[in-house]
Amino acid sequence: MTCRTVTILAFAAAVTAPAGTLSAQEVPTTAPTTAPAETPGMGGVLKDLGESVGAGGAVKAVLVVTVLAVAPAIAVMVTCFTRIIVVLGLLRQALGTQQLPPNQVLFGLALFMTVVVMSPVFSNVHRDAIEPCSAGRISQAQAWDAGRGHVRGFMIAQIEQTGNTDDVYMFLSEDQAARDDLVWRDVPDVALVPAFVVSELKTAFLIGFRIFLPFVIIDMLVASGLLSMGMLMLPPALISLPFKLLLFVLADGWHLVVGTLMRSFG
Fold first, then answer.
1. What angle do CA 259, 262, 265 make, to 5 degrees?
2. Half-sphere exposure (CA, 13 Å, Cβ side) for 88?
3. Are 236 and 51 contacting, i.e. CB atoms less than 8 angstroms apart?
4. What contacts 113, CB < 8 A, 6 or more positions away?
5. What is the DSSP letter of 129?
6. 207 and 261 in contact (C-beta within 8 Å)?
7. Which residues contact 84 (CB under 8 A, 6 or more apart)?
8. Which of 54, 115, 128, 165 is 20 to 30 A from 83 in CA distance terms?
9. Rounded CA separation 79/89 (Å)
10. What is the Cα–Cα distance from 178 to 92, expressed in whole angstroms?
11. 204-218 burial by CB neighbour count: b if 16+ within 10 A, else e?
12. What's the CA gap between 95 and 211, in Å, rounded?
């Protein structure tokens, strides 16, 4: 048998051999004594985690996210922020400066003014609600009632100070509004908060009307002067703007407006 024939037969034997066959040298001498530990999959880990959290944890998480989402709106409605930002916006419209000061500046100023005005209320809430609850002296329900009482007291004081107590009856039920012995303690929060917002809007528009008057007079004088000189194509707002800015600066307008707003809350 030639060398070529031997080579061909060896190659054929290697090709036709079973795929999983091991040679004598490849067979392990000893078998493993224990099977390797099975690694749990991601599905099992998530299933165990979901069972440990439970439905109660999911509901609490949803409630916390909801409260955090509506917290800014609630803070705006139960504080003096509404009155301040409306008056500052009307002041910008009266000056006719378009977008100056920008919205970020107005909102920042209104926010810091709100913190200053509401600081006594915040201090009382921290003293009577947050600090005792953190120390474990009172429960969360008691802390909520204590803090809520101080915020309600601020809203009630502003409604009475501005003489807008009639706004409360709009949001009460017919049975409650018809009562002769109705007191503030019986007014629910769902009626007190919108009544406070309406009262703040009415007060803010009254303050804005008084701010508008001197600037409207300047606009009328400038328009009459341009009309008498026959300058019909010249916009009166373009000429009156420097005069309004000059009047506002000479009268120290920002000090007057900010000081009047902060004093209006008593």
1. 140
2. 27
3. no
4. 80, 84, 258, 261, 262
5. I
6. yes
7. 110, 113, 114, 204, 261
8. 128
9. 17
10. 42
11. beebbeebbeebeeb
12. 10
Which residues make Cβ contacts (< 8 Å) with residue 237, sequence separation at least 6? 96, 219
What's the token pair of residue 42?
A: 């991601």
User: Residue 89: how many CB atoms within 10 A of its CB?
Assistant: 15
> Does 102 sit behind a cis peptide bond, omega within 30 degrees of 0 on the bond before it?
no
Structure tokens at 10: 């060896």
Q: What is the number of alpha carbons within 13 Å of residue 135 lying toward its C-beta?
A: 8
